[in-house]
Design a protein that fits this description.
By secondary structure, this protein is of the alpha/beta class. The chain has ten helices and eight strands. Strands 1-2-3-4-5-6-7-8 form an eight-stranded parallel beta barrel, surrounded by six helices. Helix 3 links the parallel strand 2 and strand 3. Helix 2 runs parallel beside helix 3 and helix 7 packs antiparallel against helix 8. The longest helix is centred in the C-terminal third of the chain and has 27 residues. Bound molecules: pyridoxine-5'-phosphate (PXP).
Length: about 260
């Protein structure tokens, strides 16, 4: 792959949901995701992401209030496009809101939003959030129809779903992985051409982050599960440091993209 031409800085958003997962597994008050978020900020995270799921299996309402009060940087609140979540978002007015699909039985956010099939409703949903000062992002796949619909719906940002790419990477299916990466690249270029800011995330690890970080239009990566898991072994600051180093190396065209055609 050719090195990106003069890519801008790439922000790292750290998702602290899985600190809450661990806390919730025992019904204790620890480990505290707010403490993790403050550590992540101190370790150089550019923002904190948290997903208030309808079933509250990760972050709970009080965590959002505490994050808003404690953080010095931006909070990116992930949520479903429901009226309950919109009321909560309007109450807290986080810097950013990322709308994600939610099916209660899934282990995580498995696919992107179907924006193309829901443009009118999403436009009405997004407008008051934008008017309240929140940057609204839509978590979508790289299909051109979804990207174009996101622009039509009035989103400021799209977050491209990297889950399929990460799965193919982990399974060692190089050809399919490279095809997925090419589609992500094309999607990022299409979104940027439509005036959308481009973010990416889901499933990223030390090994898979480079080629995504090297997509020049990508302005922000949101990473959670791997970083929180890796923190068990090297501490949260150590995990963030290493992720940041890999991102920056890829961004500079030094390493991350080289092994891919
Ligand atoms: N971005 C979005 C929109 C997500 O829903 C998630 C998962 O909560 C992530 C990024 C982070 O994914 P992971 O925890 O796999 O790094």
């Amino acid at each position: 792959m050719t090195a990106p031409s003069m890519p801008g800085a790439l922000r790292l958003g750290v998702n602290v949901d899985h600190v809450a997962t661990l806390r919730n597994a025992r019904g204790t008050s620890y480990p505290d995701p707010v403490r993790a978020a403050l550590m992540a900020e101190a370790a150089g995270a550019d923002g904190i992401t948290a997903h208030l799921r309808e079933d509250r299996r990760h972050i709970v309402d009080d965590d959002i209030a505490r994050l808003m009060a404690a953080l010095s940087g931006p909070l990116n609140l992930e949520m479903a496009a429901t009226s309950e979540m919109r009321d909560i978002a309007l109450q807290h007015r986080p810097h950013a809101i990322c709308l994600v699909p939610e099916r209660r039985a899934e282990r995580t956010t498995e696919g992107g939003l179907d924006v193309a099939g829901d443009v009118a409703r999403l436009r009405d949903f997004i407008a008051p959030l934008t008017a309240a000062g929140c940057r609204v992002s839509l978590f979508i796949g790289h299909e051109p129809a979804q990207i174009e619909a996101a622009a039509e719906a009035g989103a400021a940002v799209v977050e491209l779903h990297t889950g399929a790419y990460c799965d193919l990477h982990a399974e060692g299916r190089a050809q399919a992985r490279d095809a997925e990466l090419a589609a992500l690249r094309a999607g990022a270029a299409r979104a940027a051409a439509l005036g959308l800011e481009v973010h990416a995330g889901h499933g990223l690890t030390f090994d898979s982050v480079g080629p995504v970080a090297a997509i020049p239009e990508v302005a922000e990566l949101n990473i959670g599960h791997f970083l929180i898991g890796e923190a068990v072994f090297r501490g949260l600051a150590g995990a963030i440091d290493e992720m940041r180093a890999r991102i920056e190396s890829a961004r500079a065209g030094l390493a991350g993209g080289r092994s891919y055609a």
